[in-house]
C-alpha cells in the first residue's frame, strides 16, 4: 500500500475514514478483573486474513490510530483496539484527567487478558490473533507475551518502550527520585514534566511526529474530546511501575515464544532504543528493523517513511497469516 502525503491526507480522513468509522467500526465496554470499566473498539472483516489486537502508548486513545486501524481493515484484517485504563473513555484511578496513573503494569496486562477472554474470543473465536503495540503498549504487549504465551501467534512492536528514557536525568538520579517519592508518598502526584494539556497551542515541532497533517488531526481530536483525551503526563506511581515493568520484561524476554518484529525509530527521543536491542537478543524469534528518519510515532511519519513502515508491517503480518493458514491446512 502507498500511504497518503500531507496534501491528500485531510481529504482521505474526512472522506473515507470518517465514513468507515461511522458505518463499520463498533465500540463497547467491559469490566476488568478489579471492576474498572474499559473501552474498546473493533471491526470484523468479512474475509479476514487474521485479527490484529492493538495496544496504544502513553497518553493516547483510539483517535490517534484511526488511519492505522483503517489500513489494517483495508488490507484484509479485523481489529480490536483497547483504550488502556486511565486513557480515553476507559475508567481512571485518579480524578485528574490530564494525568495517567497505575500502581502496576500488571493492571494493563490483566485488562488485555480480559479483552481477549471476554470480548475478542467471544466476538471472533475462529480467527488467528496477532498483536500490534506502540510505545507503552509495547511494554504491555511484551509482558503479556511473557505471561500468557498462548493467546497470540505473532507480535509487532512499534517503537516499544522496553527501556525508559529520562531525557537529561541519569539512571542513578531516577532511582534516587524513585526512593524519595516512595518515602514522601508521592505515588499519585504528577511528575515534574507533567503539564496540563493546552488546547490552544499545538506544538508540532516538539512532537513525536514528522507529519504535520497527522499531528493536527489528532490534536484536534484531543481538543474536541474534552477531558476524555487530555492525558498529558504521568504520576510518580506510573513512572515507578513503568521502571519496574521494563526491567522485568527485558529479564524475561526469553519466555516469548512467538515471532516478534520490532520497528525501531532512528530519531526516537521518547524511549531508550538499547532496551529493544537487549530484548531482541534474549527473545527467541525477534528481529529489529530500523527506520532511520522516523521519530517515536512512526505511524505519524512523512510519506516516504510511512511507505517503508507499512511495507514492513504488512510483509510481517501477511507472512504470519499465511504461515498459520498453511499449518491449519496441514
Word description of this protein:
By secondary structure, the chain is an alpha/beta fold. It has one domain (6-329): Rossmann fold (3-Layer(aba) Sandwich). It contains nine helices and ten strands. It has helices spanning 6-23, 66-74, 106-123, 136-147, 171-183, 212-224, 236-251, 274-282, 303-329, and strands at residues 26-31, 37-43, 51-55, 78-83, 99-100, 129-134, 154-158, 233-234, 260-265, 286-291. Strands 1-2-4-3-6-7-9-10 form an eight-stranded mixed β-sheet, with helices on both faces. A two-stranded parallel sheet has the order 5-8. The longest helix is centred in the C-terminal third of the chain and has 27 residues, at 303-329. It starts with 5 loop residues before the first helix and ends with a helix. The model has no long low-confidence stretch (mean pLDDT 94).
